[in-house]
Design brief:
single chain; 341 residues; TIM Barrel; 17 helices; 8 strands; binds adenine; binds zinc ion
């Protein structure tokens, strides 16, 4: 066993109690099959599955696009403000059970507006659940709206226009969906406008796309965080740049395994990232589709890479220092980790 743990059970117990933040979570990717059926019935929406087991059996992917096809289909059951509330409330209850103290949640407005569901319906339900979780569970949150990169920049601009009346509830913008062939450069102008509005900037880069997309995210979009970033390791100068800047990477181990970004959890680059001085964090991405929430991600990668107590403490500290919390809140959470350690 790695330093500090007598057994795998000892490490699992340590992970469960560790205070943590989650910085990479697509709320639509937390739609569990049971809720999918409930909402399909509530809204009279047909789904191509007869049972929960059928749904889970369909979650076998060989790449990102395989997953995205079924992810966009799944979100079709979300129609009303109550649906978005129930989805978000279910995720927050899971996060609370994993001792997550702060969440920064993505949503994909274009996945809803293109089906005729209003921007206000989606954001209204999500924020109502976020507000309730603050009182009920003490979980703080930030909300990040993502542009779908397989759509045009003009479409992203129109989405940013729709967001304008809701900017008091939106903290940042991100970039997700099919990466290869849709480089950050395609969205340079809309991200500049978002930055001008005072929004924080993140982008998925280096999940399937090349290291150059990570450079573009830094240089052209001027990101505050990189989502995934795995393929940065192919470029030594990029690794040095990310380490020097203290750029946070939101790494998603079970997602990487399910989407064949890694062949085997034992080959996951998380430990290499930490050893290279990269500011890596552990997150669940789309937990319903990839087989586990944040603690399951910590556990899977810790077991496969034999992570030490020091590694796990670094990952948890990184999750707060890489967050969009203000300095006082970061210090309070870091003190809680020190007390736990
Ligand atoms: N949308 C939801 N999950 C995603 C992922 N892992 N990569 C790109 N787009 C996504
Ligand atoms: Zn993601």
């Amino acid at each position: 066993m790695a330093d500090g743990f007598a057994s795998a059970q000892d490490r699992a117990t340590f992970i469960a109690g560790l205070p943590k933040a989650e910085l990479h979570l697509h709320i639509e990717g937390s739609l569990e099959p049971e809720l999918m059926f409930e909402l399909a019935q509530r809204n009279n929406v047909a789904i191509p599955f007869a049972t929960v087991e059928d749904v889970r059996a369909a979650y076998a992917f060989s790449n990102l696009q395989d997953f995205l096809d079924i992810y966009y289909q799944g979100m079709g059951v979300l129609r009303t403000e109550q649906d978005f509330h129930d989805l978000t409330a279910a995720y927050l209850a899971r996060a609370h059970a994993d001792n997550v103290r702060h969440v920064e949640i993505f949503f994909d407005p274009q996945g809803h507006t293109e089906r005729g569901v209003a921007f206000a319906t989606a954001i209204g339900g999500i924020t109502r659940a976020l507000d309730a979780a603050k009182t009920q569970h003490g979980i703080s949150s930030r909300l990040i709206m993502c542009f779908l990169r397989h759509l045009s920049e003009a479409d992203a601009e129109a989405t940013l226009d729709q967001a304008l009346p809701h900017l008091d509830r939106i903290d940042g913008v991100g970039l997700d969906s099919s990466e290869v062939g849709h480089p950050p450069s395609k969205f340079e102008r809309v991200f500049a406008r978002a930055r001008g509005l005072g929004l924080r900037i993140v982008a998925h880069a280096g999940e399937e796309g090349p290291p150059d997309y990570v450079h573009q995210a830094l240089d052209l979009l001027k990101v505050d965080r990189i989502d995934h970033g795995n393929r940065s390791l192919e470029d030594a100068a990029l690794v040095a740049r990310l380490a020097d800047q203290g750029m946070c990477l939101t790494v998603c181990p079970l997602s990487n395994l399910k989407l064949c970004v890694v062949d085997d959890m034992a080959a996951h680059p998380l430990k290499t990232m930490l050893d290279a001085g990269l500011h890596a964090t552990v997150n669940s991405d789309d937990p319903s589709y990839f087989g586990g929430y944040v603690n399951a991600n910590y556990l899977a990668v810790a077991d496969a890479l034999d992570l030490s107590k020091a590694d796990l403490l670094t990952l948890a500290r990184n999750s707060f220092t890489g967050s969009f919390l203000d300095a006082g809140d970061k210090a309070r959470h870091l003190a809680a980790i020190d007390a736990y350690a």
